[in-house]
Amino acid sequence: MELFIERGFEQTTVAEIAKRAGLTERTFFRYFADKREVLFAGAGTLQEFFVSTVASAPDSAAPIDAVAAALEAAGALLQERHEYARQRQAVIAAHAELQERELIKLASLASALAGALRRRGVTEPAASLAAEAGIAVFRIAFERWINETGQADLPQLIRDSLDQLKTVTAGKLGRELPVRVPGRLRVPGRRRPGRESRRRRWPPRPAAAA
Amino acid sequence: MELFIERGFEQTTVAEIAKRAGLTERTFFRYFADKREVLFAGAGTLQEFFVSTVASAPDSAAPIDAVAAALEAAGALLQERHEYARQRQAVIAAHAELQERELIKLASLASALAGALRRRGVTEPAASLAAEAGIAVFRIAFERWINETGQADLPQLIRDSLDQLKTVTAGKLGRELPVRVPGRLRVPGRRRPGRESRRRRWPPRPAAAA
Question: For an interface test with B, which of A95, A103, A132, A168 has the most B Cβ atoms less than 10 Å from its Cβ?
């Protein structure tokens, strides 16, 4: 990470990384396929952590609660490494190929989480939906944590993010003030469209869209 | 698509694609950066469709309803092209580099959807969460649609998938039968842990996990 920050990701060679770490290149390649993988070495640990926390949830726990526990526990683990996480994210943000690798990592995490839920007896598509929603919550909380100055609390941001998701999927507005309250601004004397006719215009029906 | 299916994606050249389509290679490259992009040509249209449907939702629509309308309308559009979608998915499933490109496409769609919600006055992180959850719903419904034999109804699968997400985030079990009802199997005479002490063991608290 020191070298990636000092010299840039592209300019850093495996030889330099091995030297800085006091290893031979051969030893480096025993652990990592290439220099890119150094940045994703934690993915396996994170995945095992997610899976084992979901597996250890009581049978009575709802899928979303098992997922929430996994995310929060992983958040507590990452909380200790704020500076490292921040530096890592800066390197990734500067390189399209690393962002792609990050997307693959997140997709693998979601897939592992869904598998852990299925092993608890959660049926599809609920297992995949809970897992994908969980990873979205995690990613969005993680980004806020990285961008916040000072000592932001990642597990708390994860809880807040999950609460927001629950509010949003329950059909709440998610904005401070409604832009317009329907019907309040209508012109007096003008016919107000009935519920049915408004419905017919929006949302667009399949026939109109095709 | 014919060539990708007949000869395989890797074996197909741009020269062959241009010839089959009755175009010069030069004309091909005016539209596509490479042969991979042929498979992602629809992404821009899909994105514009998402964004314009969200923008045209009434002010009173909750973010999740604006997203749902966009997903359903896009589903109705894709519904007409089941065979093409199926063939495309088979080609993508066989190549890691195409799966990565698909992940990038989905991330861009989510980001465009979140932007469209913010322009409606939806605040962050609600906008990103609604968008990410929406794309997860879409992807999972799409996969079911691709894998189902016969005339599956994609807009209906999208509605079902969104309903499932709502059920899951509301904390429902998402499985046919609970594996064990808490407290029912307790050994008589043995002290049953109180609510507080059970809470302390699970979910794992940040301090224990770090």
Answer: A168
